[in-house]
Amino acid sequence: xxxEQRLAEELRVRTYSLFRRSLHIRTFDSGSCAVCESEIRxxxxxxxxxxxxxxxxxxxxxxxxxxxxxxxxxxxxxxxLEKTLEAMPDPKIVVAVGACALGGIFAExxxxxxxxxxxxxxxxxxxxxPPSPLALLHGLLVxxxxxxxKVRGLSFDLREQVAS
Amino acid sequence: MLWFLRxxxxxVVTTRYPRAAIDAWATSLPSPPAFRSDRLTLELASRLVxxxxxxxxxxxxxxxxxxxxxxxxxxICRAVGGDAVVASGEFELAxxxxxxxxxxxxxxxxx
Lengths: 164, 111
Known about the structure:
The complex is a heterodimer of chains A (164) and B (111).
Chain A: H1 3-16, E1 23-29, H2 35-42, E2 55-57, E3 66-70, H3 78-87, E4 93-97, H4 98-102, E5 124-126, H5 133-143, H6 158-163
Parallel strand pairs in A: 1-2, 1-3, 3-4, 4-5
Chain B: H1 2-10, E1 33-35, H2 42-51, E2 57-60, E3 63-67, H3 76-81, E4 85-87, E5 102-106
């Protein structure tokens, strides 16, 4: 890790520590099939209860710390997405949710970008089609630095898992 | 209501995560595949790539490349791959680095 990367990481950790106790989430549908939204809505149910972790949904981007973007980034939503991000106060986090937002479903054409990070800078990627509420909770906690990423340590090769 | 009273008592209204072990059923949700690389042949890997509806599976430099960001967990590769492919059961896959979601599996089986 270079000195520049180390300083960037240190700044990120110090900035995100501001979000450790309370964080407001604005969701943005950039052209999803609404199943991701259905899973996101479940986060507020008594079973998953994201409020116990200090997370809250807000309808206003000006009150939001984190933008949860689902969908394949249709070009018609570009302006709305950019304005939403611009309206959020700094520091802010962008989380891309689902296989559409990560580029797995729609190829780029004249109607869609095919991935969210072609439009706005993404801080955390949450895979899944749709990601379950538990996957989303993990993604949110990784985004604010309260949990470590697990995926780096996973190999998806069962022979390696047996050997280790 | 109990959380509210606990918060008043302790001055803390949030909790740790997870408070207990995550539910066992969570691992049976649709999840990306895991591979037995010793049973994976080039021919089987090609069939898996063709069967995948998204670009999640590719062959590159003799390895099968799995992009977890593209995978929808549909299970078609499991139907095609027999005992060489199983559901990984992994769902906590969030990452700050897009490249960390790309996994290489050596094709180690013989034809």
